Amino acid sequence: MDSPALGAVALLLAGFWHLGLTATNYNCDGALVSTLPSSAFTSSSDFFSTHSPSFAKLNRRDGAGGWSPLDSNEQQWLQVDLGDRVEIVGVATQGRYGSSDWVTSYTLMFSDTGRNWKQYRKDDTVWVFTGNSNADSVVHHKLLHSMKARFLRFIPLKWNVGGHIGLRVEVFGCSYKSDIADFDGRSSLLYRFNQKLMSTFKDVVSLKFKSMQEDGVLFHGEGQRGDYITLELQKGKSVVILWAWGSKGLFHTSITLGSLLDDQHWHSVLIERFNKQVNFTVDKHTQHFRTKGDSDHLDIDYELSFGGIPVPGKPGTFQRKNFHGCIENLYYNGVNIIDLAKRRKPQIYTGNVTFSCSEPQIVPITFVSSSRSYLLLPGTPQIDGLSVSFQFRTWNKDGLLLSTELSENSGSLLVYLHGGRLTLLIQKMAEDPVEISEGCPDNFTDSQCLNPITAFQGCMRLIFIDNQPKDLILVQQGSLGNFSDLHIDLCDIKDRCLPNYCEHGGKCSQSWTTFYCDCNDTSYTGATCHNSIYEQSCEAYRHQGKTSDFFYIDSDGSGPLGPLRVFCNITEDKIWTAVQHNNTGLTRVQGAGPEKPYTMSFNYNSSSEQLEAVINSAEYCEQEAAYHCKKSRLLNTPNGIPFAWWVGRANEKHLYWGGSLPGIQQCACGLEESCLDMRYFCNCDADREEWTNDTGLLAFKDHLPVTQIVITDTNRSNSEAAWKIGPLRCYGDRQFWNAASFNTEASYLHFPTFHAEVSADISFFFKTTSLSGVFLENLGMKDFIRVEIRSPKEITFSIDVGNGPTEATVQSPTPLNDNQWHYVRAERNLKQTSLQVDNLPKKVLEAPAEGHFRLQLNSQLFVGGTASRQKGFLGCIRSLHLNGQKLDLEERAKMTPGVKPGCPGHCSSYGNLCHNGGKCVEKYNGYSCDCTGSAYEGPYCKEEVSALFEAGTSITYIFQEPYPVTKNTSTSSSAIYADAIMSKENIAFSFLTAHAPSLLLYINTYFHEYLAVILSKNGSLQVRYKLSKDGLLIFTIDSGNFANREMHRVKINREGRELIIQVFIKLKHNFSEIDFKAIKSLTLGKVTDSLTMDPEVSKANAYGFTGCMSSVWYNHIAPLKAALRHPSIAPVTVKGSLTESSCSSLTEADVNTATTIYSSSDPFGKTDEREPLTNAVRSDSAVIGGVIAVVIFIIFCIIAIMSRFLYQHKQAHRSSQTKEKEYPENLESSFKADTDLQNTVSECKREYFI
Fold first, then answer.
1. pTM given for the model
2. Is 1040 found in the same domain as 999?
3. Would 22 be classed as within a structural domain?
4. Residues 1047/1131, Cβ–Cβ less than 8 Å
5. Residue 1004, Cβ density class (10 Å: 0-12 exposed, 13-18 middle, ≥19 buried)
6. How confident is residue 1164, by pLDDT bands cut at 50, 70 and 90?
7. Of 650, 689, 693, 656, nearest to 674 (Cα)?
């Protein structure tokens, strides 16, 4: 956060030390300390003169054998002045000779001036070096990246617990030569080219700089036509590079990179441009981008300026501040600019530039703790006023900066940040001393140091009190003021948003201790916007119980690909994924030839990588390709040059058409040998005057999707065509059910190393009966990652990134080794480690703010076991994803002993997803719900089957007689039917109507008994039994008017003598005796046969039923579903108007009229394929054709009649074939088989069609 200034309070931001490359001088490993004089060593303190820092050279035994401070604490340090800036590549340490004093860990700080120190970092973390384990052994460390500095400090962190701090050191490296120029904010360097106008295709600019100013131009070049290139500091925390080309106006490309660069430390910049491609590097952060504009070269003037813009009035030049600071090793296209300036070369103009870096001796301080840090400084009592100024920087929006008591007991003054704004507060108080403090000391009372927000965390420098600068080194030495938990002579601020660890476009913000990610508008969630909010496939949505609809899918989960909007067509058989493009309709083409081809490119509103991910994840994909033609050739078969083609993946041209195979220049009719003209392999290639077509499916996945179509033969007389490329359609998720079975504890699968340095997510399903086992493990030198089941109720995710193991454990209330599928998701990022198991509460552990954070793994990834082959996993693992990438367990299991591909038994876990009597059917890749035994349909047998009835509508389901009387003429019919007594009824249905009276359901027997469900005139519901012994039994539900245009669900269950009727309320009745014999038929709506009915039923039957009825069920029979789905093979008769509809979507008008026709259309608006050219293609010769049509009308009529006859015959044949394919062989027989009532009574497992 940038904080505004108050009075003399100035804005300041600090930054990182530039982590340079390892020394390129191969001989840069010389000892730098051994030859230094004693005066080169200083320290925070020394125990005695014999323990002074001058004795701290490696392997020396003089004095007390090394340096030891007066007190052993973390505020001590040993400093070495190397005499000049050198390149440091390594260090070595020993303890104090012959003692128990040695350092076990330490950090390093470096500086050019002995002030304003910088900590040595690795991976953006202050690096802690391992020290010694005894007094005399030498521990060497080679630096990962070299340091360029004159001063080096060793900061002991820990030491031998039985002794004190003791240290001897050596530093390794070599001399460092550089060319430096000092700019005072008014000076600059000008470099003139040899030629007047310079046009470049390639530019390379490299330099290092240090500055205390937040703004300043480092480099600028400008052309006469408006082109320019500028490198500058802006607002103290960024480097911005601006490019412009002027051939067609001015195009700006502005890139910001780097942060906190005005901290008076060296930072490196490298700009590499080749044509429009630019690599821009600040310190270790690089950004690649392309410049805008239409020209590859850069036209700049005959001179470049460094450190500023010397002629502000120059045309096209904008006002910018000159650079104030030092620039080192400035190169432009290999030319050493500073070296030329130092040697006074004529092409260089030097404007008030010096060649040594003059640096002010500024001492910053860091307030580390939010509760204990403070600096207490003495003020000067004055009656007439108070003057305090300082510079500060922080990321926190709140914090107390200053508090002081005003003289003469006039009150207190507070300066603090609140919501990022500076606030001055003066409060009346009655205290004598005048003290000024930054932060808030612990020994102050609440009234003395009022902190309305929180303590300050950040850096300060240049503190002036009453116009007098305060020497903070004196504070450090204890001779001025007081302090607690400060880092003096160091600004230890860190930009936690550089680099931005918020993924997928998440916006980063930060405080002193951590960073935050705003994931709004990213389609991702989590602490670092790592996790997609969408599923990876339509199969995953179906697994959640979703029905057909538009969804977003994210094929690579947490990977770089974004979500894609698709239509998931979730059917009982397959789950289709459809991706629409910008033109799926039938499109007419005329006037296209080889010189002027017709081209259409397809836009799927997605990247090619997204589409490829969808296709690669599917088992099968297709796109329909249709070409309707009249005198327009397609592929010009058999051997000609094609007149049309399509372009697929990777911009590859393809010369085969739908229904054919790759590499074969044919259409579907060519493979089937059914083309209109057998001399050609496409119907359109016959070049006929009448309309024909070539239509088929493109199904070779590696060539899909279709990205472009080209047509070149519609420019001849009477030549035209119409084409259609359908949406991309795929089914089958190759990963969701991808599984492996581990049969022995020593068996495992191995994969390449899991690379997930900053963020990692692991997800999978498992099922097992074992007590424990390791699901997954990957090891590094010290780091590791592991997921395991430690006990039947405990899953653990373990990880170590160098700070010690972290374990997240989820405890389940029930055993997880129940041979059911369970879901596990483990995630680790810079902020959190988390573990989710099924729907149990997620276990989340916060990551430390400092320390190691990169996960370094180098072994193979073991799945189902470990490298030691111990604690292996017994059971199944499926759908394993690592950072969104899918691991093919089945393919690897095929070649691994002890592991089998696939895992049976899905229905044991997911059978409960099949509702309403649907049965789970086991499949190799998953399961399906068989709705044959249900009144419902759909993927989960949850979709209602409903229809609109009119007054005369009747559906009658006929039951066969239990025994034909002719089978045994010696037996009386009553004896035959005595064995077929119906012991129960299980009836359920829903209805909606506005009419009463109405007859809903009627069941009659061969003995003239019946069961009727009616609505009486007042809207009450009646269930009426007509029995031979008990006579007429009437059960009335009069809890309201059921003809109220609302849906009502009716359930009637009779088991033996007990009857239960349930609508809103439950009604129970016990029969004295019931013989409901030999069911003959069941009727929904109006009964059209002459049957015996009591007057109330007859009155209701006269009106029939007008309304909507759905999901009708009677003892394993679904008569309404049979009538709507299979009327030709089910024993059902439909009379009157019956229109399929959704009862839940009806309006009041629909209920009253019951005549509205409802239809379901494809979401992509497919046209009727029977007449593809009705609206899309209209011949220009329609008028002339009309005259001719009068003459040949009779001929056409004859042809039409003959064609119709042949067509009906062909369709009848196809229909019979389709039915044979669609239904099992015993389906029709299941309706015609003996449906005698004895089987119904005994609850046999025979399944009747419903």
1. 0.78
2. yes
3. no
4. no
5. buried
6. very low
7. 693
Note down the domain range covering 836: 739-903
Concatenating the DSSP letter of every residue in 581-600 gives -S--S-EEE-S--SSS-EEE
Q: Is pLDDT of 968 > 60?
A: no
Task: Please report how the helices 1193-1222 and 1182-1191 are oriented relative to each other, as an axis angle in degrees rounded to 10.
Answer: 100
CATH number for the domain spanning 169: value is 2.60.120.260
Scored b (16 or more CB within 10 A) or e, 678-714 reads: eebbbbbbbbeeebbbbbbbbbbbebbbbbebbbbbb
Per-residue tokens: 1236: 């005698």
Are 420 and 339 contained in the same domain?
Answer: no
Q: Are 730 and 615 in contact (CB under 8 A)?
A: yes
More confident residue, 1158 or 425: 425
Query: Are 370 and 238 in a shared domain?
Result: no
- 527 has a pLDDT exceeding 80: yes
Among 122, 150, 175, give the residue marking a domain's end: 175
Residue ending a domain, among 1088, 1105, 1140, is 1140
State yes or no: pLDDT of 87 exceeds 80. Answer: yes
368's tokens: 């580390």
The confidence band for 246, taking pLDDT boundaries of 50, 70 and 90, is low
Q: CATH number of the domain at 775, please.
A: 2.60.120.200
What is the domain count for the chain? 8
Query: Parallel, antiparallel, or unpaired for β 335-336 and 421-427?
Result: unpaired
Confirm if 711 and 597 have CB atoms less than 8 A apart: yes
Would you say residue 15 lies in a domain? no
Q: What is the DSSP letter of 354?
A: B
Average pLDDT for 666-671: 93
Residues 271 and 382 reside in one and the same domain:
no
Q: Is the residue at 1148 inside a domain?
A: no
Please report whether residue 970 resides in a domain. Answer: no
Whether residue 577 sits in one domain with residue 559: no
pLDDT over threshold 90, residue 91? yes
DSSP string of 1017-1055, one letter each residue = TTS-EEEEEEETTTEEEEEEE-SS-S-SSS-EEEEEEEE
Q: In this predicted model, what pLDDT tens digit does every residue of 803-820 receive, in sequence order? A: 899 999 999 999 999 999
Count CA atoms within 13 Å of residue 441 on its CB side.
15
CA 729, chain centre distance (Å): 23
> 1173 near 628, Cβ under 8 Å?
yes
- pLDDT digits 0-9 by tens, 341-361: 998 888 888 878 999 998 888
CA-based radius of gyration for the chain = 43
